[in-house]
Amino acid sequence: MGGMNTTVQFVADIPCVWSYFGYTRLRRVLARFRAQGGRADVVFRPYQLDPDATVAGEPKMEVLRRAFGQDAASAVAAITAKAETEGLRLRHDKAVYSNTFEAHRIIAVAARQGLGEEMAERLFRAHHTDELNVADVDTLKGLAAETGVRWSDEGADELRAELDRVRRSGVRGVPVFQFPGRPPLTGAQSEQALQAALAAYLP
């Protein structure tokens, strides 16, 4: 008997470390689910933590210092150690905090080509590990090519409408995971919680 094809809506923003953790866990859970014959698509829904961030960006450490004050260094050390337990390597020293509009747009372009999951992973890694500016169009073109995504300039109007829809739906923080017919799961969910949510859709 074939299983149902389910959809996970994932609301996130690239510079958000909890979005990265949540997405990393979701991908691990999806890999197991698919190996067991489950079918699931991820629908990426965009959210901008800072719609006013510039394309040139600023050093992420400055942003963290504004957020955490004197505790910025210890906060960064704690999150970096936590990332290692997720199998992720975070670098902050030269990281660039910039506008994520174009990054969200290229995820949507990639999704239409069946490569949304790969493009999202590459963008998270570009920002958090490679210290790349994910607002820079040349950088994005390189990352798209590396991921096998054909570049397109389309989708800006649709993205603006979708950002607006997500905001109007009441999302005020990310990540958010939405499984069909269930209340949304907010924050960086554990693998166990994500696995339990998906288990209902196994064949």
From TrEMBL:
SUPFAM superfamilies in alphabetical order: Thioredoxin-like
Organism encoding this protein: Nonomuraea recticatena
Record-given protein name: DsbA family oxidoreductase
Lineage: Bacteria, Bacillati, Actinomycetota, Actinomycetes, Streptosporangiales
Ranges of residues in domain DSBA-like thioredoxin: 7-199
Pfam families hit by this protein: DSBA (PF01323)
